[in-house]
Records
---
Amino acid sequence: MGNAVEAVESYLAVARAGAVGAFLNPAAGKSELAYMLEDSGAELLLVDSARREQIKTDVDVVATDGAFEELAGSAGPTPPDDLDLDAPAWMLYTSGTTGRPKGVLLSQRSCLWVVASCWAPVLDLGPDEELLSALPLFHSYALDLTVVAIVATGASLRLLPRFSPARAIATLREEPVSLFAGVPTMFHYLVEHLDGEPLRAQRLRLCVSAGAILPAALTEAFERATGVPLLDGYGITETSTMVTMNWPTGARPPGSCGLPLPGCAVRLVDPGTGADVEPEEEGELIVRGPQVMLGYHNRPEDTAEALQDGWYHTGDLARADRNGYLTITGRIKELIIRGGENIAPAEVEQAITEHPGVTEAAVVGRPDEALGEAVAAFVVADEGAVQAEDLRGFAAERLADFKVPCEFHFVEEIPRTGSGKVMRHRLAELLD
């Protein structure tokens, strides 16, 4: 289901029942949805009524509309409050370089720990605060901040069904919203929509960004346009959202994603040797702390590779200055991040190569001012057998909208290493 109160109720109800809630993207294509239902071992699928007839599955399906009001009036035993905080509570799917989404298992303790070390102290969340969010509820960012943190601190949430800069600005002007959470793309569109006009928000005092790299120029433009501080942080699904955060007090180096959260250990290491790098040198970011995932669902080998001696290897590259402020510089992993959405190149490539006229395909991320990155595809095809628009429509039938390439380039061959791996940096150079 989409962003709705029923989704929040479902997430809490499933955990309260001692089950594991696996959140699925409502924009997922049919094949993606079928894969995640099978991979998760789901026994029950909760949907809104609008999607009920679209779902074709052997799993039991329940439309939530009005169900909770009906159940609230029924007599029944109150479940004991004896849930294991360290047991799997939620499973969120994240795209990997293999192209198949992996189920990340998070516990209540891991998510609550991020609330206690980040959201509560940094945002000063409490009963007097009201958060506005259009973050998709199937993301860990939204789960932890807009569900767990709101319930844990007693703050209020004003939830938008989807992001619209006009709707967000109108809400900020008309309602007593004190905080706004988003991804960099949202803040870009807010600045663009204001177009020099004052924000005139009733009560907004702080904004927070995560989910993708926030350019220093965008932070400066947003704060100049609104007069409201915009804090950036770094986190991923495997760490129950946050690892580092900028604070409203103290230094905020341009382009930095802040300091490690209290109680969270962070290292930057040479990807080849595992040795720690010096300040200002680039290294792979690895993390150890209570917020690290329990593991990948039914993927012991992937779990063992990601979690080594208690350290989670993020696959992201970063630099730290001499005061400990981190700046993300790139990715060892080949994920494309479009507007905060992770896209695995292999998944998109597989969908394109299902076309009978396509021999090979490879995709890379193209820098995009609004989205951070956009998907660009390189295709080897039979001469005259297919056009770009044909491939765009073909991909759209198999992939969520945000994964469909915005452009297609026809090439004679895909550059590969001796072992057959795609040389994506060579393709990216062709975009310049």
---
Amino acid sequence: MEKSTAASCTAQLADFIYETQWEDMPVGMQHELKRSLMNYFAVSLAGCNDPTTDIVVRTFSPFSAGSAASLIGRTERMDILHAAAINALAANVYDYDDTHIPTIIHPTAPVAAALLAYGESNPIPGRAFMVALLLGIETQCRIGLAISPFHYSRGWHITSTCGVFGSAMALGKILGLLPNQLGWALGTAACQAGGLVESLGTMSKSMSVGNAARNGMLSALLAKEGFDGPARPLEGDYGFTRVFGQSPDLSAITNDLGSTWQLSNVAYKPYPCGVVLNPVLDAALDLAGQLTPEDICKITAIEITGHPLLKQRTDRPGVSSGRESQVSAQHAVPVALLRKSAGLTEFSDTAVNDPAVKALGTRVRFIEDGTYSIESAKVTLHLHDKRTMEKHIAIAKGSLARPLTDDELETKLRDLCKYGASGCDPNPLIAALWELETLDDISLLPALAVAKT
């Protein structure tokens, strides 16, 4: 595909979105898109009946303008904007969604939720859907790269702030927006970007992910009707990257467009918690297999050695809810040692209030080591009989270098579907996902993922 010679990065990105076709997509990215959707439906079905989702459905219902779109794992239907928001929210509730490793963006939920909701009343062939999904993921991850690491470190929830651009460009592609209209959609999306790291561990965190799906979709729909925006919403003096970033790297948005794809830097979680805890849990579960009940009683200290970001993100003692526990090493390590497992049950309110887990959590200590990558960690157990036990994980399960297999992603979907108690049969959905490019109409996917009464 010929590269655009447009001057501004907004224009270059809009040209790229407009020009890219199925033939421009590498075969490897086609398969990875199916994996990303497998994970998306898994985590959406897990969170479909969570109290967070229940409250939002109950609150939104009186304001829904119709019933064009499904709510994954549920019987209710809503208009496409509300459905997109709720389905993206449900996918993010348990922090089990995919992760763009360089930025820590969870890219699929805002984009897939918007496309699937729109596609239920506006038929989208599988190939067109895949192109739009890929471009939406590419957009938000590249914008995220331009403002990382300052943006997240400053306290912005990067999935929410950048996800709105992904859903806008994905739907803009489906709507056939012209480059200038795509630029308008980016501008309107920029004016609706929001989300705070302060919200982690609360229901509010997932609400802003839902807003990213809905507001991005709205931005594209408005642009189609002639709703304009600033010419340089990304790079302007008061544009998104300069307001939300510090010395933004605008080249990250435009360099090698169409020859490198950010989806290749997306990983899928083996555990329902912050991605920096993955190597810690790998180590804790390995040690758990070696411990006897008597050993557990002898633990006097638990040392966690890792990248400084590990302590920054997960040093949360005394958590009081399952949601908070997803970003707490003081919960994650003890519960894995005691229960020899690290699934959704281990990050529930019940597990958090287990006295044995709480007691062992008081013995956790961090050792910061800048030589560790965020995908590595060491857990050392000190026992009162002077013994020590330790396990070092160089590459965490679920990382780019050690990804979940296709079979493991299928298992994740089946397990989380069961956990979410929707009554949905995951097997037809799995089969349809692997044949995504052959579908005449992607509305089959949400139809296979609704609750069975």
---
Amino acid sequence: MKVRIRGKNDKMTSGETRYATKWMSALIMSPQMMPNITVTVLFEREEGLKGSTEVVGDDIKPREFIVAIDPNLSRKSQLRTLAHELVHVKQFSLGEMRYTKYTELIKWFKQTIHNEETEYWDLPWEIEAFGREHGMYIRYIDHLAKEKIRF
């Protein structure tokens, strides 16, 4: 996996951001997929959002993504948000989720979901991302402690 870092962040080094991105991605993506994915982690505040994931280029089989994270969040919240957004990277890159030509309609596996008419907390891609983010964060923190890794 290629990881680029953009923007300023006082709570997490570029080295840790790169390491956490690769380590967390390896929890949910196959080793065959990882070398083909490029993620740019952009530390930038977006009003009302902790983070977001944007597909760059081809939206049928995307391999390049921008993951934006609010740098004003605590380190813990940044890492949890990173985990959450990496689940979306996995969803897009495997074709589990994809945009249609109509921005309000999203394909989730074979089902078309009207994004604007469905409650945010009921969106299946958000259910998966929120369900995985805490466990990915805990496993990452435990891994750093066990391996005595410091940034």
---
Amino acid sequence: MSTEVRVPALPESVADATVLSWHKQPGDAVNRDETLVDLETDKVVLEVPAPGDGILGEIKHRDGETVQANDLLAVIEDAKREPTETESADVMQARDKQVQEEPEQATLSPAVRRLIRETGVDPAKIKGTGKHGRIVKTDVMNYLDTQQRGKPAKEPEAGTMPAQIQGGSALDLDADRPEQRVPMTRLRARVAERLVQAQHNAAILTTFNEVNLQAISELRRRFRDKFEKQHEIKLGFMSFFVKAAVEALKQFPVVNASVDGSDIIYHGYYDIGIAVGSPRGLVVPILRDCDQLNFAEIEQGVRDFGQKAKEGSLSYEELTGGTFTISNGGVYGSMLSTPILNPPQSAILGMHTIRERPVVEDGEIVVRPMMYLALSYDHRIIDGREAVRFLVTIKENLEDPARLLLQI
């Protein structure tokens, strides 16, 4: 008796998926609920589990092929049935062994399992920094980096390409000037499409300001230990920016709106997108109902998003929707930038790196932690006056955090 492995129902608005990688090959023993294959969509990677125990038989769609919902991916054969004469010796051997996967391996994300398989490292030697000690991709990379320290650098062979672009097709066989064509991932292609869409369909302008973060820095120093002890999460800057943005959005609802044809849709809720870098590219998970969240809940949500982005475990629902976006280029050292809208949203706030700079207060020159802010907005529905006042409101809320508590 055989069991079919089919493409699961895809999220709404997703027409197809790409076979990213198979974790098992024909003849391998598989266990029920063990991840067999990863499917990449425009936003997320879907893990397809084994519907039952057995031996993986024929694979119908290989890596890189496009599939649709309910397409047949592979067949799992019953491990107890009598083998046919045409089956390979490998299949016979795998059926006899039925080697069980180690328990700790089952908790690893697809990206981590793939990296461990490719590098050959022992996961038992890696200390996990994820939730409940789970091993994430950065843990593996840090372990590999530690192992390489003290070893002489190995010169790359002539004509080889950097590891990050392996897998493409060669364009130039000249050993001195090699080139390689690498197809975009589904996520990268979707990001490119949406960025071009935003540039073509919206009248994007950007206004700038700077904010003095002295008051917030003092608050964090005063309450950092108590906050972390009580909520088991660190008090960062992002929760202040989310709260400041929500209060500003309440005062200027058009910034929280979106364009639909010839209509403007005003949203009575505040779902804030938090731009996060991941191994697959930029993703923007959505923190829902931010007006109803406290500082600890916001910090916890942001931390969870960062962890899931590293592991590639963000769900489609977590990446869908949003009424306003905050992007923090400061974590990469950016001093100033002009963020691009995340359609169909009408505005995005860009945070940047914090630098101590001399400023004048009460006629005296003092050193303060300063940050440049950038607000890109759709001029079709947001006037310059509203955009500037919106950004000034965020600045005032951050420079006097008591406003966030009093909601003034």
